[in-house]
Design brief:
There is one protein chain. The protein is α/β, with parallel strands linked by helices. The longest helix has 17 residues, at 196-212. It has helices at residues 32-42, 82-90, 122-132, 137-151, 166-177, 196-212, 223-229, 247-259, and strands at residues 2-3, 12-24, 45-48, 54-67, 71-75, 97-102, 106-109, 184-188, 215-219, 232-237, 240-246. Strand 3 and strand 4 form a beta hairpin. The chain has two domains: 2-103 and 220-259, P-loop containing nucleotide triphosphate hydrolases (Rossmann fold, 3-Layer(aba) Sandwich), CATH 3.40.50.300; 109-213, Rossmann fold.
C-alpha cells in the first residue's frame, strides 16, 4: 500500500489508483450460513485474504481522478462502500492495495465525534478540532468569535461537552468544520440532522462553503441534493464502481436499476 497524499498527475486534486480495502473478520467462522449472514449485514463481498482469513471486501479496484471544480456524488445502497471511500480519501483508512493521491488540505465533514473529548469544554474542543483540521492557533483565534456565534451555544461553550445533546454537538462540530475555505471537501449526509432552524442556517453556510472548495465529494441517499450540489456521480455497488460520469446520467441509471 502506498498513500502519497500528493497529486499523481499535474492538475489532479484527487487520484485513486486500483484502491481496495478489506476488513478481516477474525471471529467470522467459515460456515456457509454465517458467511451468508455476514454478507447480508455488511453489504460488501465476502472473500479470503492471503492468510485464508475471511474478509469483507469493502472497496475493490477503485480508479478515480477528480480535477479542480469537480463536485462528486457517491451513490449506492447501504453498505455499497460510500463512507469507506470517503474515509480512504481522508486518510482515516489505508488501502489494502493501491495508491491514493491528494493535493490540498482535506476538510472532512463526517465522523463528527472525531477528536471530541467529552470532559473538555466546547471552546477547548473547538481548539482541538481545529488542530486536527490543520488550522493554526493564530488562524483559529481570529475566527473563534464567529464560530462561537454560529453555534448558538453561548454559555454552554464553557461547559464540558458530555452535557451536550446530539444536536448541540452537531452545531459545535459543524461550525468549526466550515470556518475556513476548504480545498478538498468530503461530506456525508449527516448535515441534514438537527433542528429545523439550524438546518436552514447550515444549508446557507454549506452552500457558500461548497462554492469555495476546489473539489467536493458527497455521500448521500438524497438524489435531489446530489443533483443540486454535484456535477458528477459515482455509483458504487458492493465496493465496485458501477458507473461514473455526469450526475444526471448516473442517477438515471441508478434509479432504473432500483426500479428493475
Amino acid at each position: 500500500m502506498t498513500d502519497t497524499r500528493e497529486p499523481d498527475r499535474a492538475g489532479t486534486a484527487v487520484h485513486l489508483e486500483n484502491v481496495s480495502v478489506s476488513f478481516p473478520l477474525y471471529h467470522g467462522g467459515s460456515r456457509s450460513l454465517k458467511k451468508s449472514l455476514l454478507y447480508r449485514g455488511s453489504g460488501g463481498r465476502i472473500g479470503t485474504d492471503a492468510s485464508h482469513r475471511i474478509v469483507v471486501e469493502a472497496l475493490r479496484e477503485i480508479n478515480l481522478s477528480l480535477q479542480t471544480g469537480d463536485r462528486l456524488a457517491l451513490i449506492g445502497s447501504n453498505g455499497a462502500g460510500k463512507t469507506t471511500l470517503l474515509r480512504v480519501m481522508a486518510g482515516i483508512y489505508e488501502p489494502t492495495v493501491g495508491k491514493v493521491g491528494i493535493h490540498g488540505r482535506i476538510s472532512p465533514m463526517f465522523d463528527i465525534n472525531l477528536g471530541i473529548d467529552q470532559e473538555l469544554t466546547g471552546y477547548d474542543n473547538i481548539r482541538l478540532r481545529a488542530l486536527i483540521l490543520g488550522i493554526t492557533p493564530t488562524q483559529l483565534e481570529e475566527k473563534l468569535p464567529e464560530i462561537a456565534e454560529f453555534t448558538g451555544l453561548h454559555e454552554y461553550l464553557d461547559m464540558p461537552v458530555r452535557t451536550y445533546s446530539a444536536g448541540m454537538m452537531l452545531r459545535l462540530t459543524f461550525a468549526v468544520a466550515t470556518c475556513f475555505e476548504p480545498e478538498v471537501l468530503l461530506m456525508d449526509e449527516w448535515i441534514v440532522a438537527g433542528d429545523a432552524s439550524f438546518i436552514s442556517r447550515a444549508r446557507q453556510r454549506i452552500s457558500t462553503f461548497i462554492d469555495k472548495a476546489s473539489v467536493m465529494v458527497l455521500a448521500s441517499h438524497d438524489l435531489a441534493t446530489c443533483q443540486q450540489w454535484c456535477n458528477k456521480g459515482l455509483w458504487l455497488d458492493q465496493g465496485r464502481i458501477k458507473q461514473f460520469g455526469p450526475i444526471d446520467e448516473v442517477i438515471h441509471a441508478y434509479q432504473a436499476s432500483v426500479t428493475a
